[in-house]
Amino acid sequence: MTTLPSPARGVEMISAIRVLIAEDETHLGTVLEQYLTARGFAVTRVRNGRDALDRLRAETFDVALLDIVMPELDGLEVLRLVREDPLPPEIIVITGNGTTETALAALKLGAYDFVSKPYRMAEIDALVRRAWEKRMLTRDNHAMHSGLRRSTGAPNFVTQYAPLVAVLSLIERVAPSDSPVVISGEAGTGKRLVARVLHEHGGRRDGPFMAFDCAAPGDTRGEIELFGAEKGAGSGAERRSHGVLELAAGGTLYLRHVGDLDIRLQDRLLHALETGAFTRVGGSQRVDVRARLVASSTRDLTRMVAAGSFRGDLLHRISAVRVALPPLRERLTDVPLLAEHFRRQFGGANPPTFSADAVAALEHGRWPGNVRELRNVVERAVLLSTDGTVRASDLPTGADTIPIGGLSAGATLTLAELERRHIVDVLERTQWHQGRSAELLGISPKTLYRKIREYGLRRPTNRT
């Protein structure tokens, strides 16, 4: 492991900076390769421009050192061709004549910098590190402009429930490692929050936090979003695109609803994890896997393996550590704490207070939607409060939140019936808009569709 000083990021790199040296002078190339390797870089060396271009298109490099005068293709031509890619390596041009015209031509074509022979090795070392820092910033900006968010803020759990406190202690111990983690739990229990905690408290916290919904289409669209695609080459893409597995390099990739991952993508992901590399759709360039994987699922993955719908070898690969989150109905002692937390979060400078009967009603709720449902209830109550106090009468009276009136004493509902009623209630509130319903329920549209079929639910005939 090499610690690289970076004023902008302060990142302790888990994998070495990958450097390509294109230098036809045998002695100089050997000395430079040995020096950079000793400094902790992963170095590949070629001796002509054609080989340089081929390697840059076959593998992923962070920085390339290109001599101007080389056989077959000169350094400027290689630079021009490589800079056409959306996320090329940073290029440092090495010139033997040191003319101003050559330097300006290189910078105009997009080179990070140039250096004239003879040069000091320490100068090359510093240039490569600064060029790498620039590429990391460029990659992060590319991810953000692609609509993929990095985590912000310091995530934290609000709990006094002893078993969950023990789980959080395990998470804190695991976070600094690069071990893959699988988080299980019902919808709304905080699986994404755990993923963020693992990221923020780990060695990759200054890298990107990328998320991929595994319930996305299992066709080429989902494959491209995960692995990226080359322009044309059977992928249908108009330009090269970078998937979340590549954009998460140096950070964390969060695989949401991993149990819904298409079986073909399970095969591709397993191969990538086993070999440490993958290729974009329609391409042949090797891209290293350089992200930590955190996955979550509302489904029992072990049972899915037994049923043959999830690969057992993939589950072993992604679950060096397994974390199970309890549902809110098992940690009702946390309800007042969570309600107070959300009250302050949504109440502004002068949040309304909860009356005793409101707190009691919340404590007796069934919460099939777990913490997410409690959050939504408190947000609604706080926003609609008019006199500075939230009372039980201000809370939803639906069957899934407040105890059902009309049941005989001691009567209970099964978890499946509670889930069914909750889904029906949300579908009714959204007028059966399945996209919005899935978002409110904290599940994927694919999972909601499966639940609708499982419970035999039908859209009312008076709804369009």
Tell me about the largest β-sheet.
Answer: 5 strands, parallel
- As a percent range, the share of strand residues is 5-15%
Radius of gyration: 27 Å
Q: What is the number of beta strands?
A: 16
Q: Could you give a quick summary of the protein structure above?
A:
The protein has helices spanning 26-38, 49-58, 75-82, 100-108, 121-145, 162-174, 191-200, 220-227, 244-247, 263-275, 301-307, 312-318, 335-346, 356-363, 370-384, 415-429, 434-441, 445-454; strands at 2-3, 12-13, 18-22, 42-46, 63-67, 90-95, 113-116, 181-184, 209-213, 252-256, 277-279, 286-288, 292-297, 321-324, 353-354, 389-390. Helix 2 (49-58) packs parallel to helix 3 (75-82), helix 16 packs across helix 17 and helix 17 (434-441) packs across helix 18.
Please tell me about this protein's structure.
This protein has about 475 residues and is an alpha/beta fold. Residues about 1-15, about 145-155 and about 400-415 have low confidence and may be disordered. The longest helix has 25 residues, at about 120-145. The protein starts with a strand and ends in a 10-residue tail after the last helix. Strands 4-3-5-6-7 form a five-stranded parallel sheet, with helices on both faces. It has a five-stranded parallel sheet with strand order 9-10-13-8-14. The chain has helices spanning about 25-40, 50-60, 75-80, 100-110, 120-145, 160-175, 190-200, 220-225, 245, 265-275, 300-305, 310-320, 335-345, 355-365, 370-385, 415-430, 435-440, 445-455; strands at about 1-5, 10-15, 20, 40-45, 65, 90-95, 115, 180-185, 210-215, 250-255, 275-280, 285-290, 290-295, 320-325, 355, 390. Helix content is about 40%, strand content about 15%. The chain is built from 18 helices and 16 strands.
